[in-house]
Write a structure and sequence with these properties.
The complex is a heterodimer of chains A (about 425) and B (about 625). Chain A is about 40% helix and about 10% strand. By secondary structure, chain A is an alpha/beta fold. In chain A, a hairpin with a 2-residue loop joins strand 5 and strand 6. Classes of the chains: A alpha/beta (about 425), B alpha+beta (about 625).
């Protein structure tokens, strides 16, 4: 960016009013040494698929005809690419929806005996970027159910050791963590907590030698990864401590009110979509992953009487397909609204969307048959050449991992490969 | 359902929302255990009506706390104990009412009623989505009379509620025993606050030296207590509150590898490690004082001492944790919430059934353990556990009341064994359809321990169709004609074919339910014609095993399993128990010992309790792998 941002211009284009001082670029002195604009990525998964006949056009290329769902994204036709014929191999898992856990990781045979997940593309990027922002990544979800296995609210983000990162399902909490300063007592308490955490980690480290002496070879491997986690936590504490002393960005917006009613899936999705531009604009993080799911309740949408999960198993029942399309229509509209808002925020000479690669799709190509091939995949923004429908071979799918490599490269991370990649994807 | 305020006045009209505890100012201030009591009687009921107690919250979560059948004129106080959070509320609901559908203008489409009115006299199944085949929201309908005129002119069956009481939090004293136990050596004043009687660090030492052997399940090693306790020193020096200070070492103990991992030297486990392994196997928790005492004496590894503890622990209520967790994993019952049966195809599926079918499996397995019944009962049994709701689902007469109890199955019943339990049939189906491939694979993997290979990458997937024109067998026929597919599917599909006689809710069927083509069902639902679905194509549940034995349905298939596979089922069951108990896979080197265990258990007819004893005596349990 060459020109310092004029505050008035900023307020006009951002769609969200921000109180000064906020962005470094607004200060002429800092702007002279302005850094390049940050690259970002957002992934959004609708875990039950998108009804293929309503989504995919017949003709690939730039001149593709519109379809029921693409019509909803009419205003953004030049801002996204629609892919078909992408998938991960070997997604037969323990149960029909196991591919949820491997959508962002590309691990094979999810949840079968002996399965251990691998790092997800968002966590890989977050790990590389580190605490350059207050949060290395934000993992969001719509299903507030805490899993029976007590691993927390579900997400598709996994650490290097294959541990799920629980999703944040409360936009109000998230808003508070990002923007609300908290009173002096609270900050003091947080600092004390971090200090205690550091003492605990020191204490644990100090016992390592004694433990190593006792441990068998197999256990030593496990202890190694335990202490690796301890080291990572120490680093995290140090970084988080540093961020505690930096003022949080001030935003001139009322905190969101959580949608508590389980049936209001669409309300929850929309609230997250509304928050993402603010997250990115304030540079709170550069990596966001969203999982859209609500298995148990009937979505609160006129004309819909079945649960989303049930409708996805429509068994070709026309009445169910009609309802399924109503649910998916609302979800696709939420994606459209995210694009709309990202385009509405100016940044540098362009918009927030130009700097943000947005992946939207599903781990199921067909919810009725639980097919994990031919996934519906959109890539929007990120400065890529968009406007086409790119169809890979439906019988011999191209690796979705290649697209992830492309996204990592967009993040300016050195990534020659990811998951099952055979290269990067260019189209 | 209405509120009987003075035992005589039944003229007011009341909505079920009025019976929510929060609407009457009952909002618990503190999370905890509460006792909920509802005093109610049946009203104009000539058949049993069911009173339900439900807990819910503003998020839309809903949990059935209890179900009670009331016969004509019966009354009583019904209670359930439940954990309540401040935002939770409880309310009574009714089920299985005969609504006398001959009354004109009885049902009404949803748009005719205000939001408040829609939940009046909530009776699940009451005319949901049924007028003129139109689909309505799954919300409750209610008789016109009770809404307009009150209960006095209502002709149908009902439940009248005299009172609803919530008592709690139920505590064994304050502070609770768990807090007293944690703060070893510290006194509490009458308000429940801590009273320090010496230097704070001395107290920290007391607390930590009490917790460390408990949490690490062995005596503390030299310097270990101090290493943790000293973490409180900076906080004490900063004059922070005692609880704040002591929390630092406590958090460290509970984050330490010594607590988190059951690590021991390879080879034979010492008595403390054995106590840990046994306790986490049967109780999913720390050893109790008796186990620790046996470990300290060094007697636990003696077979007869071990056997005594196994008996004692299996008889304890805490063994239910093992049973729930084991069937949750082995039979995948943890996945029971993943799908909800389609409301139009399976309108009879309700909370009461959902709860009962899970209880059946838990109680069935509990009985195998308690009475040392043989593994063949997993394949077929002459008993199961039912309440009236589940018995009706299974078509088994003579079971009154909503409490679960052991029931002898009629000779001609298709039920018996785990495969025909509705819980298993539900988790092996999605909400709408069943797949012989999925269920067949489940039988091979989970009962017989012969998991099929995953399908090749280019294998197609089956596209279910409920329109009534084609059956899943017709769809599958083509792949069975393909020799490449048939190599595996000749083994995978047959058990699935046998289970085709069961729908996704575990109900027995001779015809597939269809949302499109088919005949109008002849039966009734809640005393009215069935309008939600059609009877589609007939079900064929016959098949031929890969060994060439043909069967005409589930009964014959179970007979084949009993004749040929009992040893295999036992072997897989034992191996699953070993995996569960040790957390380690069965390695190649373990196969001889596993075979010995199987042979040893065969003598007593593979009694499940005997098997558990044998497992705890086996080197697979008593040694740690290298």
């Amino acid at each position: 960016m060459n020109q310092p941002l004029d505050r008035r211009t900023f307020l006009r284009t951002s769609g969200v009013a921000l109180a000064l001082p906020l962005l470094e670029a607004m200060s002429p002195a800092l702007a002279r040494a302005a850094k390049p604009l940050p690259r970002r990525m957002v992934t959004v998964c609708n875990a039950l698929g998108l009804h293929p006949p309503s989504l995919f056009p017949a003709t690939p290329g730039r001149e593709y005809e519109t379809t029921e769902y693409l019509e909803l994204l009419r205003d953004h036709r030049r801002d996204y690419t629609l892919f078909s014929g992408l998938s991960h191999h070997d997604q037969n898992g323990r149960q029909a929806h196991s591919s949820e856990v491997s959508w962002l990781t590309a691990a094979r045979h999810p949840e079968l005996a002996g399965f251990r997940n691998t790092i997800s593309v968002d966590q890989l990027a977050a790990g590389e970027l580190g605490y350059v922002t207050r949060f290395p990544s934000l993992v969001l979800g719509t299903d507030t159910t805490v899993q029976r296995s007590a691993k927390g609210t579900q997400s598709q983000s996994f650490t290097r050791r294959g541990v799920m990162v629980p999703s944040e399902t409360s936009p109000a909490n998230l808003f508070a963590r990002m923007f609300l300063a908290g009173d002096a007592d609270e900050v003091e308490r947080q600092k004390r907590d971090l200090g205690d955490g550091r003492s605990i980690l020191d204490g644990l480290n100090s016992q390592r030698k004694a433990l190593d002496r006792r441990a068998s070879a197999a256990d030593r491997g496990r202890l190694d990864s335990y202490f690796e986690a301890v080291r990572a936590a120490e680093k995290g504490i140090t970084e988080a401590r540093a961020w505690l002393d930096r003022p949080k960005p001030r935003v001139d917006r009322e905190p969101p009110v959580d949608v508590r009613e389980r049936r209001d899936l669409i309300g929850r999705v929309q609230l997250l979509m509304d928050l993402i531009p603010l997250i990115l604009q304030t540079d709170s993080t550069r990596v966001v992953a969203v999982m859209i799911q609500e298995l148990r309740e009937v979505p609160k949408i006129p004309g819909v009487s079945g649960t989303h999960h049930n409708l996805s198993h429509h068994g070709q029942d026309p009445n169910k397909i009609v309802q399924l399309r109503k649910v998916e229509t609302e979800i696709v509209k939420c994606f459209g609204s995210l694009l709309e808002q990202l385009k509405g925020c100016g940044e540098g000479d362009g918009t927030l969307l130009d700097q943000t690669a947005v992946l939207f799709g599903s781990n199921l190509g067909n919810g009725n048959s639980h097919d994990t091939r031919n996934l519906p995949i959109f890539l929007a923004g990120g400065g890529f050449d968009h406007g086409r429908y790119v169809a890979y071979d439906e019988n011999d799918n191209a690796p979705l991992s290649n697209l992830y490599v492309t996204m990592l490269q967009h993040m300016e991370l050195e990534a020659a490969s990811f998951g099952q990649s055979t290269g990067s994807l260019s189209w | 359902m209405f509120v009987d305020e003075d035992h005589h006045n039944t003229s007011g009209s009341f909505s079920a929302t009025n019976l929510r505890s929060d609407r009457h100012g009952f909002q618990v201030a503190h999370s905890g255990l509460y006792r909920v009591t509802v005093d109610a009687y049946s009203y104009q009921a000539s058949t049993p009506v069911t009173l339900l107690l439900v807990r819910a919250n503003p998020n839309g979560d809903r949990t059935l706390l209890g179900a009670f059948d009331l016969l004509n004129g019966e009354s009583g106080a019904f209670e359930a104990t439940t954990f309540l959070h401040p935002t939770d509320y409880v309310f009574p609901e009714v089920a299985d009412l005969d609504w006398h559908t001959d009354v004109e203008g009885f049902y009404a489409p949803i748009e005719d009623w205000s939001a408040e009115a829609q939940v009046v006299a909530a009776g699940k199944g009451l005319g949901r989505r049924l007028l003129n085949n139109r689909v309505y929201h799954p919300i409750f309908y209610h008789p016109t009379e009770i809404l307009v005129d009150g209960a006095a002119t209502y002709k149908g069956e009902g439940v009248a509620v005299r009172s609803l009481a919530i008592e709690g939090p139920l505590l064994d004293g304050w502070p609770p025993p768990s807090t007293r136990r944690l703060f070893d050596g510290i006194e509490f004043d009458s308000a429940g606050d801590l009273k320090l009687t010496k230097d704070p660090y001395e107290h920290v030492l007391d607390v930590v030296s009490h917790l460390v052997p408990l949490a690490f399940r062995r005596p503390a090693e030299a310097g270990e207590v101090e290493a943790f306790a000293s973490l409180a020193r900076p906080a004490i020096a900063a004059e922070r509150e005692f609880v704040d200070a002591v929390r630092v070492p406590l958090r460290a103990v509970l984050s330490a590898p010594q607590f988190l991992y059951h690590d021991d030297q390879p080879g034979e486990l010492d008595d403390f490690a054995l106590a840990t392994r046994l306790s986490y196997f049967v109780w999913k928790s720390l050893p109790d004082e008796e186990l620790f005492a046996a470990a300290r004496e060094g007697s636990l590894s003696q077979p007869e001492v071990m056997a005594r503890h196994v008996e004692r622990m299996l008889d304890d209520d805490k063994a239910q944790r093992f049973i729930g967790d084991f069937v949750g994993k082995w039979l995948r019952l943890y996945e029971i919430e993943l799908t909800s049966p389609d409301e139009r195809l399976y309108p009879e599926y309700d909370d009461l059934l959902h709860h009962a079918l899970q209880e059946e499996t838990r109680l069935f397995f509990t009985e195998l353990v308690k009475s040392d019944l043989g593994v063949r009962n997993l394949i077929d049994s002459d008993f199961t556990f039912l309440n009236r709701r589940l018995a009706e689902h299974y078509g088994i007469p003579g079971v009154e009341g909503q409490h679960m109890r052991k029931v002898s199955l009629p000779d001609d019943s298709v039920r018996g064994g785990v495969l025909t339990q509705a819980s298993v049939l539900k988790v092996t189906a999605n909400g709408t359809t069943t797949s012989p491939v999925f269920r067949g694979s489940f039988v091979l993997s989970n009962l017989l321990g012969r998991p099929p290979n995953p399908p090749p990458a280019n294998a197609g997937s089956v596209e279910p169709d409920i329109r009534g024109a084609t059956t899943i067998r017709e769809i599958l026929a083509s792949h069975r004609r393909d020799p490449t597919c048939n190599v595996c599917h000749r083994a995978i599909d047959p058990p699935g074919f046998a289970l085709e006689a069961f729908d996704p809710t575990g109900g027995f069927r001779t015809r597939y339910r269809s949302s499109g083509e088919g005949d109008t069902p002849t039966g009734t639902l809640y005393g009215r014609p069935i309008l939600e679905y059609k009877d589609g194509p007939p079900v064929d549940s016959g098949g031929v095993t890969p060994e060439g034995s043909s069967f005409s349905g589930i009964a014959e298939y179970k007979r084949l399993l009993l004749a040929d596979e009992e040893d295999q089922v036992a072997r897989h069951f034992i191996s699953q128990l070993v995996v569960y108990a040790t957390g380690a896979e069965i390695g190649f080197a373990d196969r001889d010992e596993l075979s010995r265990l199987v042979a040893q258990s065969r003598e007593g007819g593979y009694g499940v309790r005997t098997i558990i004893h044998n497992v705890t005596k086996s080197p697979l349990f008593r040694e740690r792998q290298r």
